Each structure stands twice: as C-alpha cells, then as structure tokens.
Amino acid sequence: MTTTTPGTTPVPVDASESTTRRRVLELVASSGPVTAADLASQLGLTSAGVRRHLALLEEEGKIAVHASRTPGRARRGRPARSYVVTSGGQSELLGGYSEIAVQALRHLRAAGGSAAVAAFAAERYDDVVQRYLPRLTAVDPADRAEQLAALLAADGYAASVRPGPATTLVPTAQLCQGHCPVQHVAEEFGELCEAETRAFSELLGTHVQRLATIAGGAHACVTNLPLRAPEEGTR
C-alpha cells in the first residue's frame, strides 16, 4: 500500500501501519466522539502515535473534530479534541457493494414503486427480528438493550448503549450505531431506516424514537429507548 501527495513520489506504507490506522478508524466509528488519549488506552499505543494516525485520517477526510454542544461554563486550558467518523470514513468501512445495492433498489422502485421498496425493507428487518428475538433473553429493559447492542455490534454496526438525558421524566438510554453497513443505500432509500426503527421497537417491546442517522448526516445512528418493562409477548 502507498500514500500519495499531489506532485510527490508515492511513499510505501507499512502493512502494520495500515492495519493500525484501520483499527483507529473503526474505534472512532464505534466510540466517537473519542479523544486521542482514549484511543491510545484502548489500543495500547502512545498518544503521540495515535495522534499521527488521527492527523492522517483527518487529512484524508475520513474523520473530523467533533463540535461539542455541551452547555456550561468554558473550562480553562485547551479542551481535548474529540473525533467522529465522516461520510468518507463510513465509505472506507463499507466496502464496494453499496452502489450495486442502490442500483438494484432503483430497479425495484421503477418496477414496483415505493411500496415495493418498503416491502423489501420490511422483509429484510423481519428476518433480523426473527434472528435476534430468541437471543434477547433479558427481562430488564436496560439489559435487553445491551443484548441488542451486542448483536448489532457482531453484525458490524459498532453499536453501544449510552445513558439518555437525565432531564426526561421516564429514564431512557440511547442505542448508538457508529457504523452503518447500508449507509449509502439508506441515503436514497429511507425505508431502510424506518424499517430498522420498527424492528428495534418490536425487539424491545416498547416505542422507540430515532434521533439521528448516519444516512442523514450524523456521525452515528442514535435511537432513544425508554427504560420500561417490555410488553407481554416480546420476551
């Protein structure tokens, strides 16, 4: 593998360096917003070494500095830079099949209209429900959400559960997906995101609310989950 800067001779990149950079990108996708220090701790590397990989990934447009919107008084000193993955970074993680999928769904929509696309999306996520449901054994809603995140992570969605806002009347959690294997398809066919949200609701036995999607330009897909007991028939 080589890196190229316009007007310069390609420079070989060591395979281990490329592997480490890929791992950094994957961790930014799964853990972002995340700092160089946090990444160094997870990877067992020096902060300086991680910052070098981050600088290259940022230069390539695969990650970006996260603009914090956390309210409160400004702290003294320079705040640590936190990184999130960009659309270009998601493309790097996706592989080369998204364009074929887009073309196939365009053909389906031309032949059967939007209803045909919606039916395809519903069938796709019905299969996910049937595959996941027997493995969601927890009764406690927080534990059940963690089980769902683990299943999604195993399927490549870089999923995790994070605490919801403390200001809500009902305790909530947020299911975060740092990677979306169907991002570029969902950018054009929102039926996939809608069907996935319905699947989460069915799997968790409660109404869920999609707050953000990677396909819509966010750095992660975020779904709000009320932490209350599942309805009968979902366990």
TrEMBL record:
Pfam families: HTH_20 (PF12840)
Signal peptide: none
SUPFAM superfamilies noted in UniProt: Winged helix' DNA-binding domain
Domain of life: Bacteria
Listed transmembrane segments: none
InterPro entries recorded: ArsR-like_HTH, Carb_Metab_HTH_regulators, WH-like_DNA-bd_sf, WH_DNA-bd_sf
Gene3D superfamilies registered for this protein in UniProt: Winged helix-like DNA-binding domain superfamily/Winged helix DNA-binding domain
PANTHER family: HTH-TYPE TRANSCRIPTIONAL REGULATOR SRLR-RELATED, TRANSCRIPTIONAL REGULATORY PROTEIN-RELATED
Protein name as catalogued: Transcriptional regulator
